[in-house]
Write a structure and sequence with these properties.
The complex is a heterodimer. By secondary structure, chain A is an all-beta fold. Helix content of chain A is about 0%, strand content about 55%. Chain A has a single domain, classed as Immunoglobulin-like. The chains are: A mainly beta, B mainly beta.
Amino acid sequence: AQSVSQHNHHVILSEAASLELGCNYSYGGTVNLFWYVQYPGQHLQLLLKYFSGDPLVKGIKGFEAEFIKSKFSFNLRKPSVQWSDTAEYFCAFYREADRGSTLGRLYFGRGTQLTVWP
Amino acid sequence: SQTIHQWPATLVQPVGSPLSLECTVEGTSNPNLYWYRQAAGRGLQLLFYSVGIGQISSEVPQNLSASRPQDRQFILSSKKLLLSDSGFYLCACLNPRGAWETQYFGPGTRLLVL
C-alpha cells in the first residue's frame, strides 16, 4: 500500500535556525511530490511541488525540497526560519499510475507541526 | 484561479444528529472534488472523491456519505453523527486540465460532536 511518512510530529526551533523536515514515501513507480503548508487559521496551501527535472525544487518563502529517488525521500529545507513559518507542514505524493483515471488522488503524510520561537 | 467555499465554518452537534456540510467551487468547471478529514496528529484522510456529477467514490467505509448534485457543489452528510466524527473537514478541488495534479483546498469546517 502507498504511504507517506513524516518523521517528526512536532519540531520546535528558534528564529534563524535551519530547518529540515523529513518525508519518505512508499511506492515503486513514478510519483509527483508536494509539500503543503497550513498556517494557523488559514487554508492548506501548496508550498512546492516536484514533477520532473531538477530534483531540487524551490517553493515560496525560501523553502526548498530535494527529491532523492534512491531514498524515496522528499525532505523540506529552509536555511533560516522565521517566526512566521510556524505552521503545520504536510508531505504528499501523487502516483503516476492514477493518471489514467483522472482521479488525481494524493497520499498525505500525518503532518509536522513547526513552532518557531522569536 | 479556483476558489473554494465551505460552510459552516464551525459546527457543534449532538451525537445522533444529522450533518450536512457544503462545499462550492468557483473559477473552474468539471473539477475533481474531494472531502478530507484532518485529525490532530493524523494528517489528512481522504473520505470521498468525485470526478463528475453524481459520481462518488468512498475511500473509507463509515457513517458519512457524499453527494455531488451540481458540477461545482459537493456535500458531506451523515444521518447520525458519532463522537468520532469530530474533526476538521476539508474540501479540495483539482482541475485535471489545469495546474496538473495540484489540489486546492477550502477553508475547512470544524465539527465538534458532543
